[in-house]
Design brief:
The chain is α+β, with helices and mostly antiparallel strands. It folds into 2 domains: 42-158, Endonuclease, Chain A (3-Layer(aba) Sandwich); 171-215, no CATH class. 37% of the residues lie in helices and 19% in strands. The strands form 2 sheets. The chain has a 4-stranded mixed β-sheet, with helices on both faces. Helix 2 packs across helix 6. 20% of the residues are buried. Bound molecules: zinc ion. The site of zinc ion (ZN) has 8 residues, from loops. The site of zinc ion has 8 residues, from loops. Residues 38-157 form the DUF2726 domain. This is DUF2726 domain-containing protein.
């Protein structure tokens, strides 16, 4: 108990010192910012679009949600609480599906970007699994290729969200993540043949053969 009190005092002293020394003098003058770009990269946004189609009106999807906003340690012992809270302090959930009214988290979805397993990735997976298991929040692991499998996502989610039912597949542009629409070629060698085209045409010109099999 004493130990914690000393730590807290030290921390407060340090904070005041830093605050006075570096932040107070010229406030924000040297702290200009620039945008980092979209919150989601192209793979993530393709997956996000597939998730929206899978969930429909039955849930709200949020991305990169801080774990500490969703979870809090069970323990009432202060020291253990700080340790447990620290463990999740810098981590976030890739995607969460929430109740559309209260935004209560119903399901956590971890998107595997296909990069090889390394120490950081293993640690993250261990933490995720433990956090979700101990808090009773369902965790679904999805791979990048699921971004083209709305039906499969729907089936995975249907196990946890009552109103979601599986239905037919919807295809998404592999370049920009927008939904694809089906068109018929009006002229050229393939006249009369159906093909998928990006719904953002003419801004995105990605097309795909109609008969490509879903992976
Ligand atoms: Zn596109």
């Amino acid at each position: 108990m004493e130990y914690v009190a000393i730590l807290v005092v030290l921390f407060v002293a340090f904070y005041l010192f830093v605050h006075q020394r570096y932040l107070k003098q010229d406030e924000l003058k040297d702290s200009d910012y620039k945008k980092k770009g979209p919150l989601l990269n192209s793979k993530e946004s393709a997956f996000y679009n597939a998730l929206i189609s899978a969930v429909g009106q039955q849930g709200v999807i949020l991305s990169k949600v801080a774990m500490s906003k969703v979870l809090t340690p069970k323990t009432t012992d202060k020291k253990s609480w700080f340790i447990a809270n620290n463990r999740i302090a810098k981590s976030y959930f890739d995607f969460v599906v929430c109740d559309p009214r209260s935004l209560e988290v119903r399901v956590v979805i971890e998107l595997d970007d296909g990069t090889p397993l390394n120490k950081g990735k293993v640690e993250r997976q261990k933490l995720l699994m433990h956090a979700c298991k101990s808090s009773g929040i369902p965790l679904i692991g999805a791979t990048v290729k699921h971004s083209y499998q709305v039906g499969k996502l729907r089936r995975l989610l249907a196990a946890h969200i009552d109103l979601i039912e599986a239905d037919k597949e919807v295809r998404f542009c592999k370049r920009c993540g927008s939904p694809m629409t089906i068109k018929t070629a009006a002229h050229g060698d393939h006249k009369g043949r159906r093909f998928f085209t990006c719904s953002r045409q003419p801004h995105c010109t990605y097309t795909e053969n109609y008969n490509v099999v879903f992976e």
